[in-house]
């Protein structure tokens, strides 16, 4: 058999075999994205606090009736930022024209990230802070600094809690 | 004579390769639409699962025998990443219709997960609807997380 003809046959067989038996695969790519926006949600166990009347000699620090305020703060913030919970009074304690400073109210706290503090009507006081997102819980036991110098009356103010998740 | 035969051999090989290569390349067709899949943000208490719009996965398989099988898999190139923050890719699942040949599953960054499989040709193309879902959580750091998904359609 001439060498050239043999070469034709060999090449044809190789080419046909390659078209039939080689493994096949097709790939495609897609980009998956999830948008997670900063978000905060705050829940308080009560919307009002009451401090009953008491003898300043016997009860110099009057605890809020009903026990500690339970706080649940849910927060998602960007990497490297801090989630912060603050509280601020809208004014001093007022009973008609009589005024008691808001700073007579203070609290002791429990729970990870929570700190003790004193109320202020001009500056927001830090209640808690966290460097990681999640669901954070704690308590705040409020108390009122009782004094013979305080005129009788029913005093009120409003507390504004702010949860910041930057 | 030997020169003529050699030229004929070259022409024959070129012709065979020219016809064989495109036929092989066209046996499997795979398209993902859209190629950019976004799951919108939501309050975890209200939306415990973030859901993507439906993604159309189109598969066409030709030129295989009736008893030969084909398969479609999906593999994530890694976890969901947003800067220094990450969310484990196993938090992402999908639902797919029609089932079969498509099936539900959970994304992995290490092992390609089966998305569909069948036997014999699939021609005309089969269009499936795939919806991706991310388990939402308050523990996620805020950001726009992304990752590349690699879909692979293969046949013997």
Structure notes:
The complex is a heterodimer of chains A (166) and B (156). Chain A has 166 residues and is mostly beta strands. Chain A is 11% helix and 45% strand. Chain A is built from one helix and twelve strands. In chain A, strand 6 and strand 7 (98-100) form a beta hairpin. The longest helix of chain A is centred in the first third of the chain and has 19 residues, at 3-21. Chain B has one helix and twelve strands; from the N terminus they run H-E-E-E-E-E-E-E-E-E-E-E-E. Chain B has one helix at residues 2-25, and strands at residues 28-33, 36-39, 49-51, 55-61, 69-76, 80-82, 85-87, 92-97, 105-106, 113-119, 122-135, 143-155. Residues 1-26 of chain B have low confidence and may be disordered. At the A-B interface, helix 1, strand 1 and strand 4 of A face helix 1, strand 1, strand 2 and strand 12 of B. Strand 1 of chain A pairs parallel with strand 2 (36-39) of chain B.
Provide the structure class of chain B: alpha+beta
Summed over residues and divided by their number, the pLDDT of chain A gives a mean of: 88
Number of helices of chain B: 1
Total strands of chain A: 12
Report the mean per-residue pLDDT of chain B as an integer: 86
Along the chain, the helix and strand elements of chain B come as HEEEEEEEEEEEE
Flag low-confidence runs of chain B: 1-26
- Please give the share of residues in helix of chain A: 10-25%
For the largest beta-sheet of chain B, the strand count, sense and barrel status come to: 6 strands, antiparallel
Low-pLDDT segments of chain A: 1-22
Largest interface: A-B, 43 and 65 residues
The end-to-end span of chain B amounts to 41 Å
Radius of gyration of chain A: 35 Å
Continuous helix count of chain A: 1
Proportion in β-strands of chain A: over 45%
Which of globular, elongated, flat, extended, rod-shaped describes the shape of chain A?
A: elongated
Instruction: State the major sheet of chain A.
Output: 6 strands, antiparallel
Helix amount of chain B: 10-25%
Work out the oligomeric state of the chains in this entry: heterodimer
